[in-house]
Amino acid sequence: MSRLIRAVIDVAALRHNVRTIRERARGARIMAVVKANAYGHGLVPTALALAEVDAFAVARLEEGLALRAQGVTQPIVLLEGVFAPEQLLEAARYGFDLVVHDALQIEILEEDPGPHRFVLWVKIDTGMNRLGFRPEAFPAALARLRNLQPAPLEIRLLTHLARADEPNDPMTAEQVARFRETIRGLDCAVSIANSAGIFSGQHLGCDWVRPGLALYGASPFAGRTGVDLGLQPVMSLETSVIAVRHVPRGETVGYGGAWKAQRDSKIAIVAAGYGDGLARGLASGTPVLIDGSRAPLCGRVSMDMIAVDVTELPGVQVGSPTVLWGRGLPVEEVARHAGTIPYELLCGVSQRVPLELR
CB under 8 Å to 209, separation ≥6 — which residues? Predict the structure, then answer.
C-alpha cells in the first residue's frame, strides 16, 4: 500500500513487440518512436530496454538530449527538425539526424553549415497536409540540400500516412503512389509505414519503418486489440482499493450525483483519477479489474479517486489490487468507453504516477 497507483512496464513484452514488428517489417530497419515520454512508458527506460532497434525517433530536441544524457548511442531522429541556428548546433553536437520539412530549415542549414555532416530525412507531404514539402516543391528543396557544404552524410526520404488505420480506405494507396511518383529515379532510403502501415497487410516497400503505438502493445485499428495483432500490452496501470462503501438503494455516488444505486450496493473507492491521467470522460459502466474480475465504474472520475460497483464481488476489501488497463483489460477497450483513442490514454498518464519496470 506504500505505492498506490503505478504504471507497471513489462520489458519482456516490449521486446516481444519489437520482434513481432521486425517479422512484419519484411527486412526494413526499425526506427522506434519514443516521443511523448515513450507514449507514457518512460522515455529513457524504454530506450535503454530497446538496444536491438536501429534508431529512435523523438519529436523535439529536448527529448533527444535526454536520451544522449543517459548513454543512448543509437541514431536519434528529430521528427520535427530544428528551427534555429542554436538548435542546429546542439543537433550537431549530439549527432542527431534531422527531418527537413520546411524551407526555413533549409535556410538554417545553408546559413550556418558548420563542419558537421547530417543524415537528413526529407519529408514529402503526400496528403496529410501537416508537415512536409508538397510534391511540386520537393525537387527544388532536394536540390538545395544536395548543394549544402559540407554535403549531407546521407539524404533519406519519408512521408506520413493519414488513414492507414482504416485498411479499406483508398487514401493510403493514393499517398504511396504519390510518394513513389515524386521520388521516382532517386536512390534514397525511404520510410512510409507507421504502426498502422506495418500491420495493414499492404506491402509499402520501406527501408525503414516507424512503429509507435505497436511498440507498446496497442492496436491502431478500431475494433482490434494489440493481442489480435500478436502484440503484448507493455503498460498495466495498477492501483488499489482504499475504501469500501455500502450505498443504499436510491442514493447517489460522487460529484453531481451522476450514478444512482438501483439496489443496495457495495462500492469500492479506488486510488486513481484525472490527476493521474485517467480520462475524466470515462462513462459509468467502464470496466475495471478488481481482484482479477471485472466491475463497472460508477459516477464521475474525480481528481484522485474513482468509484466501482463491486456488489457482485463479495471478496473486495481495502487493499484489493486493481487494474485500470493492461493484461486482461485492453487499453483499446477502455479508450472506447472514454470516447478517445489508446494513444491519448497512454500519453496522458501523469508524471506523478511512478513507473515500475518488470
Answer: 21, 25, 28, 29, 30, 31, 191, 193, 194, 197, 198
Note the pLDDT tens digit of each residue in 268-285: 999 999 999 999 999 999
Element (H, E) at 323: strand 321-325
Alpha-helical segments (H) within the chain: 11-24, 35-39, 43-49, 61-69, 85-93, 103-111, 138-146, 171-182, 195-199, 331-338, 342-347
Q: What is the pLDDT of residues 202-231, one digit of tens each?
A: 778 899 999 999 999 999 999 999 999 999
Which cell numbers hold the place of 227?
A: 493481442
- Residue that the C-alpha cell 548546433 belongs to: 89
CA distances 114 to 78, 81, 121, 345, Å, are 19, 17, 19, 42
CATH architecture label of 235-357? Beta Barrel (2.40)
| Residues acting as catalytic residues | 35, 255
Domain residue spans in the chain? 11-218, 235-357
Residue 64 corresponds to which cell in the numbers above?
533527444
CATH number for the domain whose boundaries are 11-218: 3.20.20.10
Q: Give percent of the chain with pLDDT exceeding 90.
A: 95
